[in-house]
Amino acid sequence: MPRVKESSDVISPPVVEAARVVAPGGRTAGDYVALALATCGVGLIPLAPGTWGAALGVGLYLVVLRLAEWAFVRVVVPRVQMSPPDFRVTLTTLLLVVIFAVSIAGTWAATRAEKLLGKKDPGAVVVDEVAGQLVAFLFVPRGAPWWVVFAAFVAFRVFDIWKPYPVRRLEHLGGGLGIMADDLLAGFYAAAVMALLISVRILF
Q1: Which of 90, 118, 124, 186 is geometrically suited to a Cys-Cys bond with 72, CB 3.0 to 4.6 A?
Q2: Count of CB atoms within 10 A of residue 149's CB?
Q3: Which tops the pLDDT comparison, 60 or 198?
Q4: Does 204 reside within a domain?
């Protein structure tokens, strides 16, 4: 059966490749775990699954922000004898840990999902959007108003769909690595734009 490149944000014609689809009856427990991680529960939404994945990334960022606040107050500050470090260090560290974990798990899950769904970069796989959106928040300061968070969301979606050089080239890495890499780089582009806008006081 042909395997079709079906990115969640395709703006170019699909590329057909040969592959074997794993029938639902032949799937293992690991296959279902991979599909759950790859789709993040929103990838099967028929309309704009990539946008839903990015929105999930925004929600995960807000959770990480609350966890960082809790860890800073309950763990970091009580254990530092002298003046405690800036909260930003705690938030950035935790955010990087989550990005790394999502990227590693996503690479494995996306690689497996390609084989299960019989498509290259299936539209249902949105874990890459989740990771890329998290990267876009790396330089957003604590206490940023909602429009800054929304701007980071929009910036990531623009770069994820536009795919400026060399983002699109990373898709050719193949497998889960290619699926994850281009969105992570799009996230870094968005993070750079956010840092610039915030530093010149345009947004915050």
Answers
A1: 90
A2: 17
A3: 60
A4: no
Whether 168 is in a domain gets the answer: yes
The count of domains in the chain is: 1
In a domain, 172, yes or no: yes
- Full domain range(s) for residue 21: 2-199
Structure token pair of residue 141: 């300061």
47 in any annotated domain: yes
- The model's pTM is 0.86
pLDDT in tens, 65-117: 999 999 888 888 887 766 667 888 889 999 999 999 999 999 999 999 999 99
Q: What angle do CA 75, 78, 81 make, to 5 degrees?
A: 130
Neighbours of 53 (CB within 10 A): 29
Give the residue from 191, 52, 89 showing the smallest Cα distance to 134: 191
- Please give the helix or strand (H or E) that residue 56 lies within, else none: helix 49-71
Q: Which residues contact 199 (CB under 8 A, 6 or more apart)?
A: none
Residues 6+ apart with CB under 8 A from 186: 132, 156, 159, 160, 163, 167
pLDDT digits (tens, 9 = 90+) for 127-164: 999 999 999 999 998 888 999 999 999 999 999 999 99
How many C-beta atoms surround the C-beta of residue 41 within 10 A? 12
CB contact at 8 A, 195 and 144: no
**Which residues pair with residue 16 across a beta bridge?**
4
